[in-house]
Amino acid sequence: LDLKGIYKWVNAGNNRTFLLKDINLTINEGEFVSIMGPSGSGKSTLLNIIGMLDDFNEGEYYFLHESVHKLKEKQRSDLYKRYIGFVFQAYHLIDELTVYENIETPLIYQGVKSAERKALVADILDRFQIVGKKDLFPTQLSGGQQQLVGIARALIGKPKLLLADEPTGNLNSAQGEVIMQLFNELNKEGVTIIQVTHSEKNAAYGSRIINLLDGMVQK
Ligand code: ADP
Ligand code: ADP
Predict the structure, then answer these.
(1) Which residues are in the ABC transporter domain (predicted)?
(2) Integer Cα distance of 132 and 99 in angstroms
C-alpha cells in the first residue's frame, strides 16, 4: 500500500486541527510494521485510514491496484471486507452472540455458504485452542481469550492485511506474549501486519517501526 501526501483535519469554528500532516508511506506485502508515538500523535487515525474505516481530506491512497481516494464508500467497504482484518484494543465483540457466532459473522457478510462457514470456524477454533469456549458469551471470557476471539474474527475471511490497534493493550504480559507470537506466525504465513503499539517489546516482533509525532512521520 502507498500513502501519498495524506492530510486529515477537523474544523472547529475558524480553527483547523490537523490530525495527520503530509503522510508518505509505502508498506509492502509481507511486512510486519509497528506504528509508535505518544498519545494523541495520530496513530489510531492513521491505522483507521489504512483500514478504510476513516476518510481523509487530502492525498492519495493506493491499495493493491485500487486508488482508494477515488472510491465510493460502498467500494471501499467491499475492499475492506475482501482484504482487511481489523483487531481492536477493546475487542469490540458482540455481547449477545456466542464465541462461535462472533467469529462466523464476517463470513455471513461475505455470503459464504453455511457448510463452508462451519468448516472454517471449526478450523480456527481448533488453531486458537478455543473449541471449548465456542458456546460461551464474550463476558464469560478473560481479556486474553476475548482478544483471541477478536483476532479469530479478523482472520476468518483470510485477509491479506491484518491491522491491530493496541492488540495487547488490555492484556497481561503472558497473554500479550501469546498474541504477539501468533502475529509472528501469521506474518511468516504471509499475512501483512500493521500494529499500533506503545510497547517496545511488541514492536520488536515486527521488522519496521514508524514513529509518529504531532500527526507527522518522524524521519
Ligand atoms: P493516538 O492514536 O496516537 O493516540 P489519535 O489518532 O487517536 O492519536 O488522535 C490524534 C489527535 O486527534 C488526538 O489529539 C485526538 O484527540 C484528536 N482527534 C481524533 N479524532 C478526532 C475527531 N474526530 N475530532 C477532533 N479531534 C480528533
Ligand atoms: P483477564 O486478566 O484476562 O481479565 P480474568 O482474571 O478475568 O482474566 O479471567 C481468568 C479466568 O476466569 C478465565 O479463564 C476466564 O474464562 C474466567 N472468567 C473471567 N470472567 C468470567 C466471568 N464473568 N464468568 C465466567 N468466567 C470468567
Answers:
(1) 1-219
(2) 10
Q: Is 39 in the pocket of ligand 1 (CB under 6 A)?
A: yes
Q: ipTM of the assembly?
A: 0.64
Closest CA to 47 of 78, 103, 8: 8
Whole-number Å distance between alpha carbons of 40 and 181: 28
Q: Say if ligand 1 is within 6 A of residue 15 CB.
A: no
Confidence (pTM): 0.85
Beta strand 161-165 with 84-87 is: parallel
> Which value, to the nearest 10 degrees, does the dihedral of the CA atoms of residues 91, 97, 100, 104 take?
-80
CA of 18 to the centre of ligand 1 (A): 9
- 117-151 per-position pLDDT tens digit: 999 999 999 988 899 999 999 999 999 899 999 99
> What whole-number distance in Å separates Cα of residue 56 and Cα of residue 198?
24
pLDDT < 70 stretches in the chain: none
| Ligand 1 atom, smallest distance to 20 CA | 10
Question: Measured between alpha carbons, how far apart are the two ends of the chain, in Å?
Answer: 19
> What residue's CA is closest to ligand 2, atom 25?
140
CA of 124 to the centre of ligand 2 (A): 21
